[in-house]
Specification:
The chain has 171 residues and is mainly alpha-helical. Helices cover 52% and strands 10% of the residues.
Length: 171
C-alpha cells in the first residue's frame, strides 16, 4: 500500500481534480500508510495542500480485544497461508435476512461487535440501528498480508512497513 497504492491514489485524484496539490484525509489504516509513506518519501508532501491523520494505528500493545489472539496466530503461522482477500461484502442472502428481521440481526451484530471490541455501549455512541448500517455498508475486506502486517505491529510493538522476513525481500 505504501509503495504502490498511495502514489496511485494521489495521481488519480490529481488527474481527476486537475489540482497540483490535494488534501489527504487518512483514518486508522489510512493514517498508518500515510505515516509510513512520509517516513520514506519526503516528496510525498509536495503533492499535498494539507494532511489530516485521524486515529492513526501506531501501537496495539494495550489491546484487550480477542482480536489479539488472531494476531498471535497470524504472527506465528500467517506466513504459511496464501495471500488472498476476504470479508468484502455480506452475502446477498444475509443482507436480505438483515432487512427482513432487523431487530434480531441488530442484536446479533451488536453481540459479535462487543465480543471483538469490548462493551460498545461504553465506547461507542451508537444504537442497534447503527449496527445494521455498519454491517451492511461498512465491510471493506482485507487480505492475509494486511492481517499479517498488523500481527507484526502487535508482536514487535513498533510501527514499521511489512517485514517479508529477509533483507533481500524487504528491498
Amino acid at each position: 500500500m505504501v509503495e504502490f497504492d498511495i502514489p496511485a491514489m494521489v495521481s488519480y485524484v490529481k488527474n481527476v481534480s486537475k489540482q497540483d496539490k490535494i488534501y489527504y484525509v487518512g483514518h486508522s489504516q489510512g493514517s498508518l500508510i500515510a505515516l509510513l509513506r512520509l517516513s520514506e518519501y519526503e516528496t510525498f508532501m509536495d503533492d499535498m495542500k494539507l494532511v489530516f491523520l485521524l486515529s492513526p494505528v501506531h501501537s496495539l500493545k494495550d489491546m484487550l480485544s480477542p482480536v489479539k489472539y488472531l494476531l498471535e496466530f497470524m504472527y506465528r503461522y500467517g506466513q504459511y497461508l496464501p495471500d488472498f482477500r476476504f470479508g468484502h461484502r455480506p452475502p446477498n442472502s444475509l443482507a436480505v435476512w438483515t432487512h427482513r428481521y432487523p431487530l434480531p440481526t441488530a442484536y446479533l451484530i451488536d453481540y459479535v461487535w462487543d465480543a471483538f471490541s469490548g462493551d460498545s455501549d461504553k465506547t461507542l455512541n451508537r444504537n442497534l440501528t447503527h449496527s445494521i448500517a455498519y454491517y451492511t455498508h461498512g465491510l471493506a475486506g482485507t487480505s492475509i498480508r494486511n492481517v499479517n502486517h498488523f500481527a507484526q505491529i502487535y508482536k514487535r510493538q513498533t510501527l514499521a512497513k511489512f517485514d517479508y522476513g529477509s533483507e533481500q525481500e524487504n528491498m
